């Protein structure tokens, strides 16, 4: 199974960091949050990734092109213009980096990678959120529901999209709710490629019309996650995650 990661947004609320690099490369504990997300999937045996690039996407390309060198000891011979790599520390990852446009919305980005997931069931998540969600159980829930899509529901205040459900099927999905403390969209979706037919164009926002259509057709299942989940939207969020990592209390670090 593949994991698709949406990594093309501007990250304007983290402008202190994102003026130079895209949001998914903002570091927690010396590693990009994108790396942390990929390590979560890798722990569950998912090692093939499709990363949807947008704002400063070339920086993400550079990171992975040079990944082996960044994580190894090097001997550099300037005279011979050669580099010898020692003690390589790498991952068993296959990564497809797709330019999906700087102004493309979340649904549009998904539509642009259709050829890479055609006829498959795959994971989808955002490039700025970490969790200790059990991916294996999430996939199992998706298969049990027999829906076209399954979303991970987590509890968080109102700035995230509200979800109501019954018998593990979403009955209401609202991207801009009022009030507090509902089950909300935590990302970490499992999708059948058939969901892409609900996406009209580059301006389509995945969290609106496509998910609303799936909800009306009772084709959006839910996996209720009561553990840790945190999005890195602001500098304050980054500091919270950084502090957890420094104290060796990062719940999303499910790998060893």
* Number of helices, where a helix is a run of at least 4 consecutive DSSP H or I residues: 9
Q: Could you say what the CATH architecture is?
A: Alpha-Beta Complex
- Main sheet: strands, sense, barrel: 10 strands, mixed
- Total domain count: 1
Question: Alpha-carbon distance between the termini?
Answer: 22 Å
> From the alpha-carbon coordinates, what is the Rg to the nearest angstrom?
19 Å
Structural class: alpha/beta
Using the alpha-carbon principal axes, give the shape. globular
Short overview:
By secondary structure, the chain is of the alpha/beta class. The protein has nine helices and 16 strands. The radius of gyration is 19 Å and the shape is globular.
Give a description of the structure.
- The protein has 256 residues and is an alpha/beta fold.
- It has one domain: Spore Coat Polysaccharide Biosynthesis Protein SpsA, Chain A.
- 27% of the residues lie in helices and 30% in strands.
- The chain has helices at 15-18, 33-43, 57-65, 67-70, 106-112, 114-117, 135-145, 209-216, 235-246, and strands at residues 2-7, 27-28, 31-32, 48-53, 73-77, 82-86, 94-99, 121-126, 129-131, 149-156, 162-166, 169-174, 182-185, 189-192, 220-224, 229-231.
- The strands form four sheets. Strands 1, 4, 7, 8, 10, 11, 12, 13, 14 and 15 form a ten-stranded mixed beta sheet that branches.
- The longest helix has 12 residues, at 235-246.
- The model has no long low-confidence stretch (mean pLDDT 91).
Q: Which terms summarize this structure?
A:
256 residues, Spore Coat Polysaccharide Biosynthesis Protein SpsA, Chain A, alpha/beta
């Amino acid at each position: 199974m593949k994991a698709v990661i949406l990594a093309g947004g501007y990250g304007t609320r983290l402008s202190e960091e994102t003026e130079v690099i895209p949001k998914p490369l903002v570091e927690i504990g010396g590693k990009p949050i994108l790396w942390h997300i990929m390590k979560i999937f890798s722990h569950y045996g998912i090692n093939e990734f499709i990363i949807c690039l947008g704002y400063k996407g070339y920086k993400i390309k550079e990171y992975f092109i040079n990944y082996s060198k960044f994580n190894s000891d090097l001997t550099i011979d300037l005279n011979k213009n050669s580099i010898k790599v020692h003690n390589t520390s790498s991952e068993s990852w296959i990564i497809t980096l797709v330019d999906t446009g700087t102004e493309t919305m979340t649904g549009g980005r998904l539509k642009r990678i259709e050829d890479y997931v055609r006829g498959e069931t795959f994971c989808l998540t955002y490039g700025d959120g970490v969790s200790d969600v059990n991916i294996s159980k999430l996939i199992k829930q998706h298969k049990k529901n027999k829906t076209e899509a399954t979303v991970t529901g987590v509890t968080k205040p109102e700035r995230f999209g509200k979800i109501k459900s019954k018998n593990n099927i979403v009955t209401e999905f609202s991207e801009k709710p009022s009030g507090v403390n509902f089950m909300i969209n935590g990302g970490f979706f499992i999708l059948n490629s058939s969901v892409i037919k609900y996406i009209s164009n580059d301006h389509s926002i995945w969290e609106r019309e496509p998910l609303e259509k799936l909800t009306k057709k009772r084709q959006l299942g839910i996996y209720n996650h009561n553990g840790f989940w945190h999005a890195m939207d602001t500098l304050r969020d980054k500091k919270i995650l950084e502090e957890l990592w420094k104290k060796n209390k990062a719940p999303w670090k499910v790998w060893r």
